[in-house]
């Protein structure tokens, strides 16, 4: 092997190992559920909660269940960017801090994204096969979201 290639390979391995030292704080509430959490504000049936937990909460709440590969950089950096972007768009843990109008808007957006198969993201379901929404789970979720949205309208 040429000396420059050998040095480049060694440098790459050293840099990769050094990257592993960077382990930022995790998006975990450690068993605590905020009083502003979506499931504390609305009566969420067990089936719906299961679907949300499996397909939505990892990226859209303050409590992510991290897989083993989240300890490997740069995978973790990529995951954190998805989680931060997801929480910026919709955070179930802080849903109660949204105005009623914003809550309805978020629910409308959820309906559109679920119907158009935009959510959950394909990049997420590729690694989390159980997060794929079946036609049955979609129907359950969409019906419940519609009912919840209607109840918010009725209370305004």
What does this structure look like?
With 156 residues, the protein is mainly alpha-helical. It is built from eight helices and no strands. Helix 3 (46-55) crosses helix 8 and helix 6 packs antiparallel against helix 8 (135-155). The relative contact order is 0.13.
* Distance linking N and C termini: 73 Å
The largest sheet, given as strand count, sense and whether it forms a barrel, is: none
Order of helices and strands: HHHHHHHH
Gross geometry: elongated
Give the averaged pLDDT, no decimals: 87
Strand content: under 5%
Q: Helix count?
A: 8
Multimeric status of the protein:
single chain
Total beta strands: 0
Map the helices and strands.
Blueprint: H1 3-19, H2 38-41, H3 46-55, H4 57-60, H5 75-89, H6 100-115, H7 122-125, H8 135-155
Helix pairs in contact: 3-8, 6-8
């Amino acid at each position: 092997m040429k000396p420059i290639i050998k040095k480049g390979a060694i440098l790459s391995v050293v840099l990769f190992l050094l990257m592993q030292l960077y382990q930022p704080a995790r998006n975990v509430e450690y068993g605590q559920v905020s009083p502003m959490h979506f499931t504390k504000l609305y009566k969420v049936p067990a089936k719906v909660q299961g679907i949300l937990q499996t397909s939505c909460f990892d990226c859209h709440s303050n409590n992510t269940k991290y897989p083993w590969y989240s300890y490997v950089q740069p995978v973790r950096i990529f995951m954190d960017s998805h989680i931060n972007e997801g929480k910026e768009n919709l955070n179930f843990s802080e849903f109660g801090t949204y105005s009623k109008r914003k809550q309805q808007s978020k629910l409308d957006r959820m309906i559109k994204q679920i119907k158009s198969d935009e959510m959950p993201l394909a990049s997420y379901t590729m690694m989390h096969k159980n997060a794929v929404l079946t036609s049955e789970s979609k129907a359950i979720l969409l019906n419940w979201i519609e009912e919840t949205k209607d109840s918010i309208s009725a209370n305004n």
